[in-house]
Please model this.
Amino acid sequence: MPPYTLLVLGLTVNLFTGFIYTVDGGYRHAGCFWMLYATAGYYVMLGLYYLFRYRKLIGTRKVIALSSIVPMMAAAIIVHALHPQFAVEMIATSLSLLLVSMTIQRPEEMIDTITGLNKFSAYTDDLKRSIANEKSFTILMLNIDGFATYQSTINYDASEKLLKDIAARIERLDSNMQARSQMYYLDGGRFRMVFSGATRDMASPLAYCLLNELKTMLSVDTLAHTLTPCICVTRCPEDAKDFETLNSLGSDFHNKAGDKNGVIHASELFKQDRFDMLNNIDAIIDRALKNRSFKVYYQPIYSVEHGRFSTAEALLRLIDDEYGFVPPDMFIPAAEKSGAIHKIGDFVLDEVCRFIASEEFRELCVDYIEINLSVAQCMHSDLADKVLQTLKKYDLTPDKINLEITETAASYGHNSMQVNLEKLSSAGVSFSLDDYGTGYSNMKRMIQLPLKIVKLDKSFVDEQSNPKMWIVLQNTVKMLKDMNMEIVVEGIETQNMADQFAALNCDFIQGYFYSKPIPQSDYVEFVRSAHSIEN
Ligand code: C2E
Ligand code: CA
Ligand code: CA
Model:
C-alpha cells in the first residue's frame, strides 16, 4: 500500500487522528506525527530524484522553484519542533505552494488567449514529458490549410472569431463523446487533441466527426476563402517515438497526404518511404559511415569557352541496404544537426583528392573538382587546416579543388568562417557561391567573401521563360561579370536552355542535359569519350 494511502486512511479514520495531532487548547502534534514526516520525507526524496532525472525537460527555472521548497519546509519543521507554539509549518506550506503556482503554472505562458486552449509551449512540455515517461497516447492533429493566408488577407477580428468557433466545436465534441482529451492551439490554424489511457481509441472516430462539422462550418463562414481542414491521427510510440518526428509530421502532413481534405493515419503516411527514412535517418547515416556505403558521384560541367568538360561537381550518394537510395537533401541536413557532417565532409574531401591524384584523372585533363561544403563545416575552426592537410597528403596543388559554399552560409557572417575562407583563399583555394538566387542575397557579404565563381540556382533557370526573369538574369550576369566572377549555370536540361545560357555569356553549364551525377568510373568514361569525339 503506498504511504499516501496509509496517510489518508490515518487522517480520515477519526479514531486514530488523535495519535497524529490534537486540537484541544490549540493545534498540537501528537506521538505519531513522525509518520507524516516520514511519508513527506519519502515523497521529497522521490520528487528530488525525478527533478534531477528530468532536469533538462523541466527547465532550470522550474527545478530551482520546486527544489527551493525543500529547505523552506525543513526550516519551518525545525522552527516548529523547537517552538511548538509557532505553527509555522502551515504558513511555509502555503508560501511554497504560492511560489510554485507563480513560477510554474503561469497561465499566460500556457493558455492561448483567443481560443482558451493550451498553447504550443504547453503542448511541447506535455508531449516531451509523456515521451520521457514512456506513456502511450494518440494525437489528433488538425491543420487548417490556407489559414495563414486567410489571416493575413481578412480582417483580424474575423479570423479570431473563426479560431474561437473551431475551438468551441472541438471542446463540444470532446465533451459529448466524454473523450477527456487535452486540447491545444499551436498557431497558424493548427489544433491538437491528445488522448491517453482508455480514451486513445476515440481519436479516430472523433476525427471523422470533427472533419464533417468543420467542412460545413468553413464553407459557410469563410465564403470565398478556401480553408481546408486536414486531420492526422498519430499514435505514440507506435507511429512516432520522439518529439522531433511528431513536430516535423505536424508541420506538413497536409502537404504529404494524397487526399488533403480528409482524415489520414500517420501509420499510412509512414509507410511511404520518405517519412520512414526521416524517422531513421540518424541510424542510416551511422550505418553508412560504418559500412562505408557513402559514394562520391561526379556531374560533368561544360566550359563554354573551351568547348569541353573542364570541371565537375562531386555529389555524395547514399545507398542503404534497407531503404535504397537516400537523397542528399534528406541526409545532409540531418547530418548537420547531429554533427555527423564533419565525418562525412572529411570522407568526401579525401575521396575527391584521392581521385584527383590518380593517374586516370590526370589523363582526363580536367581542371578542378568542385566540392560542396555545408554551413557547419564552414564554421568549424579546423576546416582550413584539414583541407590543406588533405591536399598535402595527396601532393595536390590548391587549384585542383574549388569549394562551394551556399548563400545561406555566406549570409551568416560568422567570424570563424571568414577566417577559414581567407586562410584557404590565400593558400590558393578558390570558392564558388552555390545556389545563387535562392534565399536572400546578402550582397554586402558576397562582396566581402573571396569568391571566384557564382552558381546560378536551378530555380532561377526554371523561370527563364518569364520575360521579367530574363531581364533579371541578363543583368545578374552582367553585374557578376563586371565583378570579375565566373558564372556556372545549374539545372540545364535541354539543348535550347544550354544555347540560351551560353549566349548570355555564362562560362560553365551544368545539368542533366549533359549528364546526371554518375559514379567515378562512369565519369572517367564520359569525359574520355566526349573529349575523344571532340578531337
Ligand atoms: P547542390 O549543391 O545545389 O547540387 C546540385 C543538385 O542539383 C544535385 O542534387 C544535382 O543532382 C541536381 N541537378 C544537377 N543538374 C540537374 C538538372 O539538370 N535538373 C535537376 N532537376 N537537378 C539537377 P543532389 O545530388 O540531389 O544534391 C542535393 C544537394 O545536397 C546538393 O545541392 C548539395 O547541397 C547537397 N550535397 C550533395 N553532396 C554533398 C556533399 O558532399 N557535401 C555537402 N555538404 N552537401 C552535399
Ligand atoms: Ca553544389
Ligand atoms: Ca546548387
